[in-house]
Prior knowledge:
Layout: H1 12-28, H2 41-51, H3 56-75, E1 88-91, H4 98-109, E2 113-117, H5 132-141, H6 146-149, E3 153-157, H7 180-190, E4 193-196, E5 210-213, E6 218-223, H8 228-243, H9 264-270, H10 274-279, E7 282-285, H11 291-299, H12 305-315, E8 319-322, H13 324-337, H14 344-358, E9 365-370, H15 372-375, E10 382-385, E11 390-391
Parallel strand pairs: 1-6, 1-7, 2-3, 3-6, 8-9
Antiparallel strand pairs: 4-5, 9-10, 10-11
Helix pairs in contact: 2-3, 2-4, 8-9, 11-13
Amino acid sequence: MFSSRGHAAVCYDCIRVLAQVVAEETAEEQPQPPSLRMMAPRDIYASLDEYVVAQERAKKILSVAVYNHFKRIRTGDSSGVEIQKANILLIGPTGCGKTLLAETLARTLDVPFAVCDATSLTESGYVGEDVENILLRLIQAADWDIPRAERGIIYIDEMDKIARKEGVNRSITRDVSGEGVQQELLKIIEGCIANVPPQGGRKHPHQEFLQIDTRNILFICGGAFDGLDQVLESRANTNSASLGFLAGNRNSASSGGGPSTVTPDDLLEFGFIPEMVGRLPVTVMLESLDREALVRVLTEPKNAIVKQYQHLFRMDGVELEFTQGALEAAADRALEHATGARCLRYVIEDTLLDVMYDLPSMNGATRCVVEKDSIEGAGAPTIYGAGGAEVELPTEPLRKSA
Length: 402
């Protein structure tokens, strides 16, 4: 329409219709959730096998559980049957590969991944980190893509440290009742629309919140669960005593690594609330790594420690070699520290420190051989030149700072 002055004008009804058209087109252009990378359990297992040594049964259980989880997301409720989310609980000693398993799963499936330490979390009203900050880390890992973050994986470590006081592990409870943090975690683990502060924490009370649906986020919880063996042994003793003729096998819980499964009753006895036990239906027991497994950790994985150092030395034009005796000695040193595979990098780094310090300044070195004595601290690794002649490391001591 035109006004009396010759200028064009738009009536209110036209503006309202135009606004509706723009709103409909904008709604149609909303980004769709990213497509899932579906892999069969055998393929997931093969990918885990490239990075994680041993733990065959644990890898098999995880492969099936993760496949079913993402199959549930892809199918949705189109069939009319609502499939509940099956979060995972990993139980195993320090350095057995719990975190590595979760990281490898996320990398294999190409989904965002975040790690959190349960000991840093506190109940609302206490000084510490809110449970919503876990979701913030996942959103950041997804480059602030909320739909992608809603299909990610969160690994909560040290889960056993938030057992309530009534549990067997009374000395490592987290807050006044021991249940507060579990109750806070329960809401996001079971699935809810969570309000996440984009700047994290309680220091910015007036900030706008991000909303994220946690129903399709896979939560993997892990911990060493020190004291759980007492619960398992008590159960084994009770069962054998009730049968009478098995009373002579009361030590079976402690011999041979104990029972291969943990029941919901065991977790309740340890100090988990019933609701949390119900939200972690898939329980995976991981074995401690023995000498043979630690040697394999050094050499077999795709990113094995020995392969990493060999690549570093190759950048300086030097081939790094480890004898079998050296690898076994490194495994023995790691066993002495009782921290599983975590100590292996320290052992190799400690052995090669002097060589890595002097090697870039040396001329003619082409090969470095690490033997058992070097790992045990009885001698330095042997360095050879181009003609096969041995090259001595400089003997000048480092000056100590005053």
